[in-house]
Amino acid sequence: MSTPQDAIAGTEGRKVALVSGANKGLGFETARQLGRMGYIVYVGSRDAMKGEIAARRMRAEGIDARVLKLDVTKQSDIDAAAKKIGAECGVLDALVNNAGVMHEKSWTVNSTSATDMTSLRATYEANVFAVVAVTQAMLPLLRKSAAGRIVNVSSILGSVSLQATPGSPTYATKLFAYNSSKAALNMFTISLAHELRNTKIKVNSAHPGWVKTDLGGDAAPLNAEAGAKTEVELATLPEDGPTGGFFHDGKPIAW
């Protein structure tokens, strides 16, 4: 029977990362870039088959990619994921909370007063509550890391100050459900970073940029490789790196 010590030894000193929503888009590219850096990467995917296809693509590049069936809105999946990582590696060095949704149908024509309550609840379930649940489940493994990193994938649309400032780049984009869920996610980042300020764990929010994905659409100027840059940088911060911040491409964003 293997022990946690055996599991840790089995990683051969390599770091371990979990990326949710990693079967496509930004999540896939983030996992692939971490894998290229030598990380063992757990490919979190709501659909196990799609996760396996993504992992095979990474393994073809020599990456140690392992599939996790992870619907972040299901506690049973979250618990099973934590148990599997614990059994196989005994530690988690980087958690990238990448999975998220946007239910608004248009980037430009939306009515806050007519927000559909079902969509609002579903948005918060995936973008806020699920992130908290996954993070809580993974924290015991992150605490075992010499340098645990938590990256919450947010959006510049969650910047309250920019949303409130006429003329700002995002002022006209009022997607109430999505924007407010990312603002709430940012508050989780701030609160958790404060709680963990005397540990080696760093917690930050990332704005990947406007990226060509299912969510971002074809008009976006960035590809997934460029968009993943901020997530990867925050997942691999050095000891003197920041915590409790909101960043894009190495630069802070106003809350």
TrEMBL record:
InterPro entries: CBR1-like, NAD(P)-bd_dom_sf, SDR_fam. It holds the Pfam family adh_short. Keywords: NADP, Oxidoreductase. GO terms for molecular function: oxidoreductase activity, acting on the CH-OH group of donors, NAD or NADP as acceptor. Belongs to the short-chain dehydrogenases/reductases (SDR) family. This is Short-chain dehydrogenase. It comes from Bryocella elongata.
